Every structure is written in structure tokens, then in C-alpha cells.
Amino acid sequence: MSQLLTTDVLIVGGGIAGLWLNARLRQQGYNTLLIEQQSLGGAQTVKSQGIIHGGTKYALQGALTRSSEAIANMPERWLAALNGTGELDLQGVELLSNAHYLWSPGSITGNITSFFASKAMRGRVDQVKGAALPPALQHPQFKGRVYRLAELVLNVPSLIQRLAELAGDSLLQAKQLKPLYNNHAQLIGMQADNYLVQAQRVVLCAGEGTAELLNALQLQQPKQQLRPLHMVLVKGQALKPLYAHCLGGGSKPRITITTHPTTDGEWVWYLGGNLAEADGVARSADEQISHAQQELAELVPWLDQTQLSWQTLRVNRAEPAQSGLVRPDNAFLAEQDRLLVGWPTKLALAPDLSDRVLHHLTQHAIQPTATQTYPDLPRPVVAQPAWETLF
Ligand SMILES: Cc1cc2nc3c(=O)[nH]c(=O)nc-3n(C[C@H](O)[C@H](O)[C@H](O)COP(=O)(O)OP(=O)(O)OC[C@H]3O[C@@H](n4cnc5c(N)ncnc54)[C@H](O)[C@@H]3O)c2cc1C
């Protein structure tokens, strides 16, 4: 026998997009149910580097594009939430670093340097030296320049844990999802295992799983693109914290390094950027590790690599389709009757996606109904990050 659950908004997918949206809607008084197939954050979100970009890395092209303007206020919004004064109360979420750095191992070309010093970038990019350098770069052999960006790096598992708390009793784990239609062939919800969930709106934010859900709904649009990445993880006591894009001359960072504490008291460097993109994807795990070892030997030659452990992680980024696999820089939301389909395109842009959903609800006069509770549902667990499971 199926059990009927009714709610205002049904959210499919418990990554950052679904969890942030769920918390915001609940805070506005909406009843919500969020269905997660596996674990909370376990697809892309806890595999992310946790950087709350303000768009400054796009300034590597030497100009602030429109997209970098759009993302520019994200660090401020997240910081307010972390301080308990923002749109969500994220007090207790661990801030790994209150800055991300741009690090040029050589000399940055004249254009970029003068752009960094320009009025557009004032207060967003400051050069740091000596004791103000990130600990991993404080070494007599260090050469190059380092710029501090007003961006944040979060401990993503602690973020997901907090959003799971804010979700209260609204989380439901279900393996099988099928669309539910009324007699007029209108979507009215989802069958999720033995539950029939009816809602005024259904929001798909299932990351890579969205394509299959759209297929089940017999919809051709919006189309999704996947960008495969081959990340590298390195663990050991010789590592010190470093949160930086290392510049390589092109418009993308040569390597992006974030540092994550593990429960056994060590640090893991998580390496992405260009290293993890096309050429990196083509490499086998062993080739990718040996490439990363050479990169670090060149960039941080004082780092003793003898006691380090190495792993790689393959993961797809799921985004709305763009021509030529260009990176989309805004949260994306498509609307079709009662169905909304979203990809935040970045962890940092989850608030932007929620804004768009809330705007839709306001425009269509969808109001919160009387408060419901959902006791005794099967609940999804919070995913473990790769730095805990791979070593
Ligand atoms: C290696 C890497 C590094 C990154 N670094 C950063 C960064 O530093 N900063 C940044 O801003 N962004 C970063 N990103 C991007 C960011 O991680 C993603 O944009 C964001 O996490 C996407 O969140 P999401 O909720 O849309 O998707 P996901 O996190 O993929 O969540 C989707 C959820 O939906 C669930 N699901 C799928 N199908 C179904 C179904 N049928 N029924 C129920 N549930 C389903 C999945 O199990 C999953 O939990 C990074 C991404 C990667 C891969």
C-alpha cells in the first residue's frame, strides 16, 4: 500500500542546490519534502573544493565579465549566513579559510597586475608578502607573487550536516522515482518508492541524475552537459594549509589547491584546476598522480614528497548544456508548468538558484499552506568526503 504525503514544494536531490532551497523554503513557511536517492551531498557537492567564488578568478582574462559581476556578492551572502545574520543560519559550519589566493609562480604579466591594482578590483584583490603568505608558501625558496582574494573556503561536509539539521523532518530517502500525473496529464508530484508525494511544485535539482528524471518525464529540454574531472588527493604530515589558484599563464588556473582536515588529524591537499580537466581526464590514475607529483615538485620544491599518500577521484560536473562545453556562470532554472529544473552550476551559486525558485513561487502566487509534519520517513545520511574514504 502506498502512503500519500502532501506538501507545497517537492524537491528532488539532496546536494547543495536541493538542501539550500529546502532550508530557505521552510524558513519562509512552506511545507517541503526533499527526496534523495543516495546520500546527502554525495554526488558532486562533497567532492567540491568548497570555494565560495566571488568571480575574481575570471579576472584572469584581465576584465570583469558580466558573469563575474553576477557572482560577486556570493562571498558576502555566505559570510552573513555563516555569522547567523544572513538568509539561513549557518552558524557552526566550519570556515576552512577566510580567503582564497591567486599565486603566480613567475611574474604576472603587466596587464593583469595593473588590472588587479585598478579601481574595479579594489578591496577584492590585495598582494600579500612574508608572514601574510599562506603557510605552505612561507619558505626561503618561495618566488613569485601572491594575491589574496575576498573569497571563502568551506568545510563542505559540515555545511551539508547543518543544512540536514535545518531540513528537520522534510527529508525522504527513496530509490525509485516515477512522475505522478492527474487526469489532465498534469504533473502533480512523484511516486517515491511506497510514497505518493503530491505538491504544488516539483523542483528537480538532482545534478547528473536530472537527465534521467527528464527522460522519465518525457521532456527533451533543458539539456544537460557533463564535464568530467580527474582530481588528485594527497595526504601527509608534510602538508600545510594552502587555498590557492596557481596561475599558469592561461585563463584557467594551472592547479587549484584546497586543504582539508581529516578525522585522523592530518591534512589532505585536494588538487583541481587545469590539472583535473581534459588532459588530466585522459590520464590513467597512475599517470595523473605522477603528473601531479611533477607539478608540485616544480611549484613547491621544498615540499618533502617521500611520505605522502596519493589517490585520484573521477567526478562529473553536471550543468545545463552550453555550446562548446563553456562553463556556465549563473544558477540555471527552467520552468514548465508545475515543474522547475535547476543546476546551481557552482556550490557558491546555490543562493542564486533559490532566489530564482522563490521568484517563481511569488510570481505564481504559490503560498505556504498549513504546516505539516512528516514523522517516521526513511532518512538519507550525510555523505563522507573522499579524503576520509579513499585513504
Ligand atoms: C571536483 C569538483 C570541485 C568543485 N569545486 C567547486 C568549488 O570549489 N566551488 C563551487 O562553487 N563549486 C564547485 N564545484 C561545483 C559544485 O560542486 C556543484 O555545482 C554543486 O555541488 C552542484 O550541486 P547540486 O546540488 O546541483 O548537485 P549534486 O551535489 O550532484 O546533488 C544532486 C543530488 O541528487 C541526487 N539524485 C540524483 N538522481 C536522483 C533521483 N532520481 N532521485 C533522488 N535523488 C537523486 C544525487 O544522489 C545527489 O545527492 C565543484 C565540482 C566538482 C565536481
UniProtKB/TrEMBL annotation:
Presence of the UniProt keyword Oxidoreductase in the record? yes
Q: Which GO MF terms are attached to this record?
A: oxidoreductase activity
The lineage is: Bacteria, Pseudomonadati, Pseudomonadota, Gammaproteobacteria, Pseudomonadales
Which Pfam family, just one, is annotated for this protein?
Answer: DAO
GO CC annotation, single: cytoplasm
On whether ATP-binding is a keyword of this UniProt record, the answer is no
Keywords, A to Z, come to: Oxidoreductase
Query: What's the protein called, per UniProt?
Result: FAD-dependent oxidoreductase
Q: Which top-level group of life is the source organism from?
A: Bacteria
InterPro entries under this entry?
A: FAD-dep_OxRdtase, FAD/NAD-bd_sf
Q: Which residues form the FAD dependent oxidoreductase domain?
A: 8-315
